[in-house]
Amino acid sequence: MLLFDGVCHLCHRSVQFILRHERSPRVLFAALQSDTGRALLRDLELPAGFLDSMVLFEDGRVFTRSEAALRVARYLRAPWSWGGLCLALPRVLRDPVYDWIARHRYQWFGRDDEACLVPSAELRERFLR
Length: 129
Description:
Number of strands: 4
Strand content: 5-15%
Distance between the termini: 12 Å
Helix content: 25-40%
Largest sheet: 4 strands, mixed
Shape: globular
Strand order of the largest sheet: 2-1-3-4
Number of helices: 4
Number of domains: 1
Radius of gyration: 14 Å
């Protein structure tokens, strides 16, 4: 399952990109601001306002920041899956780039006051509220 910032346009576009380029429909999604997202953040003892990172739940483990983004790439078809190779880079190099983009995402891509990603009927089951 992938938690994403539900008001961030970059995050919405990223979810749409994942849906278009997945090898098979495996990833479930929930906005960090949703009831599901807030409950999972609470279970992880992360602050309710933790919106600076996507959060990936994979095989009973939790990944954030660049680790989450690059692990998601492995679910995509080539050539997009090749982004997962960047996991070989040290986190000390990857996370500052991720953090820089995260800090500027609203300024560069915009945001809405409320989550606006409305999945189609066939994708609705993959979005948890």
